[in-house]
Amino acid sequence: MLTPYEEMQERIRRRPRTWVITGAAGFIGSHLAETLLTMGQTVIGIDNFLTGSRANLAQVYKTVGDHLWKNFRFVQGDIRSINQCRQICRSADVVLHHAAVVGGRHSIMDPVGANENNATGFLNMLVAAHGAGVTRFIYALSGDTDSDVSALPNEPSQTGRQQSLYAVTKYVNELYAETFARCYGFDSIGVRYFNVFGPRQNPDSAYVPMIPNWISSMMRNIPVHVGGDAGTPRDFCYVDNIVRANLLAATVEDVAAVNRIYDIGMGEGIALSTISAMLRDMFEHGYPHERALHPAHREIRYAGEQGSAADIGMARRLLGYWPMYDVRQGLWFTWGAAQLSGTRGGQKPGSPAGPQHT
Question: Which of the residues 166, 193, 262, 302 is marked catalytic?
Answer without folding.
Answer: 166
